[in-house]
Amino acid sequence: MKFNKSLLLKKFLKKISKYSSFKFLNQKKSFDSKSKKAKKSDSFFLKISKSERYKNIVDQINQFKNEESKLNKSNKSNKSKKAKKSESLFLKISKSERYKNILDQINQFKNLKISSKKNDVPKLSISYSIIDNYKKNLFKILEKINNSKLLGENYNLQKNKTNKKYDQKIGIAFYGDHNLIIASLVIDLNNNIKVSGLNEIPIPGNVVGDSLVEDSNELANIVLDSLTLLDLTDSPLLLVLSNSFFNFHTFKTSDLKQVSQSDTQVQSKSPYLPANTLVDFLRMSDKKISNSSVRTIYANRDFIKGWTDTLEIIDLPIIGVVPAAPHIFDSITLKITEEITVLLDIESTQTNLLIGSNLDRLTSHKLPFGSSLYITNDLNESSKNYFERVTNSIKLIMNENKEELPSNIFVMGSGLDGLLNIEESLPKGFKRISDLNLANYSYVPKKMQIHEIISKSIDSNIYSMASILTSCV
Fold first, then answer.
1. Which residues have CB under 8 Å from 442's CB, separation 6+?
2. 181 and 278 in contact (C-beta within 8 Å)?
């Protein structure tokens, strides 16, 4: 069976003429059914005119034009101040480039002319491809109307929201200063993080010492109790360990005989005996480049083994075991443009200093004092004394390397919570990592069913955890 395109066009024009916005097709009466062939081709165009998407588009355009019509009537009949105020929005719309573009699109349809003679069967001058193009243009018009901020909320279609069924619940364990923080976090597809529960537990020295895990079984029991409390027994776990358990150095591959722990240059930078040194390498540039950089992370082999034994007992899917600083350091260097970046990680009894540049050199230094040495009843004086000493230490290290201080030294760590309240600003030349917006997270303790801490504040640690998770997943 063949389609009669002329009669098909006739019924299409009848349907379209019902809508005032498309009066350009009101010449439908000039088409009469002089051919049986014309009666059979209506179906294609009739399907278009009956489709819900087509009707919705026409309704949106009619609403848009009706508002313009109301505005014109209001201008003629009402001269009051109230009328003038109500006109302002639509005057802005009518003058806007988006509005003019939309009208241009509509006028393309108005100017559509189909030639016909009084006593002749009309010839179909519109191909299927042209009709398809006009249909696509209608959808483009609707999209422009919907996206136009000038039109207000009435014309906005509901935007796609993140589907909660794809939200991932993740557990994070953060260990440092003989405290273990375990948090339940939910991360969505847009990397927005919500802290839904939290538990801070003091870890006695007979379970985890200064440099060794003394009792993996007892540590596993403590962790499992907290995971059960936070309903994390089926969720993946990320273990973050304090920077005090790691040392960082960067080599040029051209300076090494081989990128291996057995290389004498690599061994020379380890603070541990060779047999008890665990080394991890991260190449910072192309392997084919002879002078590319290799970041080297040193850790006490026995200490890491104690934690991996604990994780085996817990038997949960593990995202990774990571030091706290490097992920945050790299996130900072991607945000700022300075040649040298300095990151200060303040702990209770020790201060960790990281100096380097964007995806290149990174070295660590340990300063033999932390926040606890300076905390007094007068926090302002405590903060002043601590930061004066740490500034002098940083200057000595950088002068030795013939480097200048950057405009800002970035600060993180649990010790920061002890020195300053979250609302207080740091001394000049220092800046919290939270000021860089490295992570989008929500942490509202009052809305959590489980929020048990032993510290006065853990805000700095929470931000560090959210930032590390953002960079790891």
1. 192, 193, 194, 195
2. no
- Rounded CA-CA distance 40/186 in Å is 59
Going by C-alpha positions, the residue among 354, 340, 358 that lies closest to residue 404 is 340
Tracing tokens 């860089």 back to the chain, one arrives at: 436
Q: For residue 373, what are its two tokens?
A: 């040495």
Mean residue pLDDT across the chain:
77
Give which of 144, 159, 139, 148 is closest to 56, Cα–Cα.
Answer: 139
**Residues shown for the chain:** 473
Residue 410: strand pairing partners? 343, 431
Quick one: which of 332, 351, 339, 350 has its CA closest to 401?
339
- Is the separation of the CB atoms in 7 and 42 below 8 Å? yes
User: Are the CB atoms for 56 and 145 separated by under 8 Å?
Assistant: no
**Whether 469 contacts 331, CB under 8 Å:** no
Residue 116 neighbours by CB under 8 Å, 6+ apart: 27, 30, 31, 122, 123
What is the SS3 string spanning 239-297? EEECHHHEEEEEEEHHHCCCCCCCCHHHHHCCCCCHHHEEEEEEECCCCCCCCCEEEEE
**Is-contact 22 58, C-beta < 8 A?**
yes
Distances in Å between the alpha carbon of 407 and those of 332, 411, 416?
A: 14, 13, 20
CB 329 within 8 A of CB 245: no
At 27 the three-state DSSP class reads helix
Amino acid letter, 269: K
Q: Phi first, then psi: give them for residue 338, nearest 5 degrees.
A: -70, 150
Taking the C-alpha atoms of residue 114 and residue 123, their distance in angstroms, rounded to an integer, is 9
Phi-psi region of 429 (alpha: psi -120 to 50; beta: other; left: phi over 0): left
Q: How far is CA 367 from CA 116, 236, 326, in A?
A: 91, 34, 18
Tokens of 282: 């991260």
Average pLDDT of the residues in 275-294: 81
Global pTM value: 0.65
Q: Give pLDDT tens digits for 198-237.
A: 999 999 999 999 999 999 999 999 999 999 999 999 999 9
CB atoms within 10 A of CB 467: 24
Burial class (CB in 10 A: 0-12, 13-18, 19+), 353: buried
Beta-strand pair 179-187/440-442: unpaired
Distance, CA of 124 to CA of 37 (rounded, Å):
12
Residue closest to 186 by CA, chosen among 167, 164, 166, 162:
167
**How many Å apart are CA 215 and CA 180, to the nearest integer?**
15
How far apart are alpha carbons 341 and 334 in whole angstroms? 11
pLDDT digits (tens, 9 = 90+) for 403-433: 899 999 999 999 998 888 777 889 999 999 9
